[in-house]
Amino acid sequence: MPGNEKMCIIGFGRMGKRAAQLFSRGFDVAVLSARNVEEEARTAGAASADDPGRAISEADFLFLALPVEVIRLWVDQINEFSRERCVVMDCCTARIAAESELSLVRRQRFGLPELHEGEIPVIGEPDKRISWYLNQQGYTLWPVTPEDYDRRGAVVGTAHFLGIALELALEPAQRILLGESRAGSFLLQLIEYLKCDSQVTYRETQLLNPFMAEARKNLIEELRDADRELNNGIFRFEPHPPDSWRP
């Protein structure tokens, strides 16, 4: 059960803010960021720290809300300044790549790549105090291996890839035409949804997830197969029965 334990969140993007809002209900949370986030941190129930060494040395828990490629810049400071019993958490999306970078951290650690309602996937052995706290907040932890998480991420990443490709390919006039139809507006909504989420998540999924290249390749092949069939007059799409059609 958390008492007056301290947590230092390194990085204050989307996931850093979410972590601050979640953990500030039971921990004394400090935030380290390259930006001036004093007001944002206060809104999330946390305090902004300006001395990395001190903030790390005082923390019982470190939460790394950083891109995978930035973690290596903090490993030496974590090993030098953090307490031996400090627990390190991270929320990196590309788990195999993250585990490689985090392997040099000489502290107990585990990953929480998602912080959403309901089940939270966890990589590694979670700290009992964090597990208890999350359970009290209505969350449950779902153990998963880095490989399984990345395989799952590659499936979801195909939707990201489709939206990214459309964003790069569509001309302004084409967007207007798409917006005039129901099916087209759904595609535009996909693009806008992606633009409202973390670019780091999509970048890591596409570039660092080792299963993503194959997933993209498979999607492209499926699109080519569908194109060939339609060119040959084959239409295999099965709509819902007429009584369920939208007006």
By DSSP (H or I, 4+ residues per run), the number of helices equals: 11
How much is the average pLDDT? Answer: 94
Tell me the total number of β-strands. 8
Rg estimate, integer Å: 22 Å
Count of distinct structural domains: 2
CATH architecture of the largest domain: 3-Layer(aba) Sandwich
Could you describe the largest sheet, including whether it forms a barrel? Answer: 6 strands, parallel
Strand order of the largest sheet: 3-2-1-4-5-6
Rounded to the nearest angstrom, the distance between the terminal CA atoms is 54 Å
Based on CA inertia axes, which overall geometry fits?
elongated
Q: In CATH, what is the homologous superfamily of the largest domain?
A: NAD(P)-binding Rossmann-like Domain
User: What is the CATH topology classification name of the largest domain?
Assistant: Rossmann fold
Helix content: 40-55%
The chain-level structural class is alpha/beta
**Approximate strand percentage:** 5-15%
Task: Please explain how this structure is put together.
It contains eleven helices and eight strands. With 247 residues, it is an alpha/beta fold. The chain folds into two domains: 139 residues, NAD(P)-binding Rossmann-like Domain (Rossmann fold), CATH 3.40.50; 85 residues, no CATH class. It has a six-stranded parallel β-sheet, with helices on both faces. The protein has a two-stranded parallel sheet with strand order 7-8. α4 packs parallel to α5, α7 crosses α9 and α8 packs across α9. The chain is elongated, with a radius of gyration of 22 Å. The termini are far apart.
